[in-house]
Amino acid sequence: MVDNKLIVSSSPHLRSDETINRIMLDVIIALLPATLASIYYFRFNALKLIVLAVLTAMVTEALIQKLMKKPITVNDLSAVITGLLLAFNIPASAPWWIPVIGSAFAIAIVKQAFGGLGHNFMNPALAARAMLLASWPVIMTNWVAPGAEAVSTATPLAILKGEAANQILPPLKDVFFGNVGGSLGETSAILLILGGAYLLYRGVINWRIPFTYIGTVAVMMLIFDGGLTSMIYHIFAGGLMLGAFFMATDYASSPVTPKGQIIFGIGCGVITSVIRLYGGYPEGVSYSILLMNVVAPLLDKYTSPRVFGEVKQNG
User: Fold this and answer.
1) Can you name the residues that pair with 144 across neighbouring β-strands?
2) Do the Cβ atoms of 117 and 27 come closer than 8 Å?
3) What is the reported pLDDT for 180?
4) Helix, strand, or coil here: 57?
5) Is 144 helix (H, G, I), strand (E, B) or coil?
6) Which three-class secondary structure state does DSSP give residue 250?
7) N or C: which end of the chain has fewer CB within 10 A?
8) pTM of the complete model
9) Contacts of 205 (CB under 8 A, 6+ apart)
10) Element (H or E) spanning 199, and its range?
11) pLDDT in tens, 203-232
12) Exposure pattern of 81-100 as b/e (b: 16+ CB <10 Å)?
């Protein structure tokens, strides 16, 4: 009997049992606690917006691939994640057509127009959020408090920035567990951390981008925004946990080299901090990741290890 270990063949020489479907399923499992929390805190509105975002993403992907005569790959679950992440980035008060337009834009323009899964240079859900925020800023910033009555409120970051002078900061435990106003999926820091820990355990993501991203924001807020308490609010409020673990780590739009990933995470942290401290917007996670997505190819180019035997031109 021939020993398979002695067979010589062409590359790839390293093989893995991991599949796109399995990786996407792990991400969905990691997002499940925050999904259930958003439905618990924001009730039927959250469920409606999540279902509409996911269904629109799947239908748009199948329709575009059908029109372009390409294999329909809805079963790989990547469209489900795009729809779910987009829903996480909109407020519970949004009308039904906001997730529909956002998901269609994310899949048709940001993903499929550039070649489909693995070819998009930006995170599709974040690009769609930026489009929705630029087009309908009032709707996209109409935050409501958790509960069935949907009472308008300010986010902790808006209160920190002085945009809601008549409101006081919620207790840190409410911020930590998610009992505050904000986008559907970004409110519960502990459940997002739990999901991120699952992805780290499964090897779907590594520590470099999320840890350097969160660490950079922590250091800058500690130095430039008044100390430890303000730093803790900036870490656990808003979209930092969602962005650091689930969006900045997107395989297609982030660097692949270890050094590049560290620079990418630090860059996201610096831009987020500058926007929050000195910009006209209390958040900053979405724009920081999108801006760093643009420079990701350059980071890969200048941080790639030298190929063994390579000779520099004119060397």
Assistant:
1) 152
2) no
3) 87
4) helix
5) strand
6) coil
7) N
8) 0.89
9) 196, 199, 245, 249
10) helix 189-202
11) 999 999 999 999 999 999 999 987 898 899
12) bbbbbbbbbbbbbbeeebbb
